[in-house]
Every structure is written in C-alpha cells, then in structure tokens.
C-alpha cells in the first residue's frame, strides 16, 4: 500500500498494526520484516490522520479555562494571581478585551501556558 485513501483502508491498517505489534513483541529491529511493515503502516496512518483528523490548536481563552479547571481556580482566584480585577478577567475570558503584555507574561509564569499559545 502506497497511500491510505479511504476510511476502510485506514481501519484495515490500524488492525494490521495491532496484529503486527502482537507478533513483533520486543523485536524492534529493522532486520525484522514484520517490524518494517508495521513502521511503514504507522507512517501511512499518520499521514492519513494528519490529513483527515486535524486537531485544531486551542485558543488562548480555552487554554486559560482549562488551566483554571486543572488548578481549581475561580475567576476571582485568577484575578488575584494575575494582579487584575475580577471584571477584567471576565472581559478576557469572554473575548471582550485583549490580554496585555504584562498579563501575558503572568499567564506564562504563573499558569505555565506556552508562549506560542499566548502569542497566537
């Protein structure tokens, strides 16, 4: 198979990979033809998934809300952590106001949000 073009081919390739993984066990050598086949199928599956099942990068607001959930923070907690008012946090989370450079730095330092997400 040179390329996976249909969902049926994709499902078949996934099944073959599962079967090959059981056969291969710990023999991850390129001398093992089953390992080579599994490696090739994995590349084809990845290409198909990249084309058909793209995962969108979350927005900064979505990431902030996720981090708040993970850290058990309420808007008032986040306001205190970032040194801004509760109403300002509300504006940020509703997309009514752009995040300032100072707040962006604090999001990175305090909430460990990746700078690339902040700058998007």
UniProtKB/TrEMBL annotation:
MF-aspect GO terms: core promoter sequence-specific DNA binding
Gene Ontology BP terms: regulation of DNA-templated transcription
Protein name listed in UniProt: HTH cro/C1-type domain-containing protein
Xref: InterPro entries: Antitox_HigA, Cro/C1-type_HTH, Lambda_DNA-bd_dom_sf
Source superkingdom: Bacteria
HTH cro/C1-type domain span: 64-118
PROSITE patterns hit by this protein: HTH_CROC1
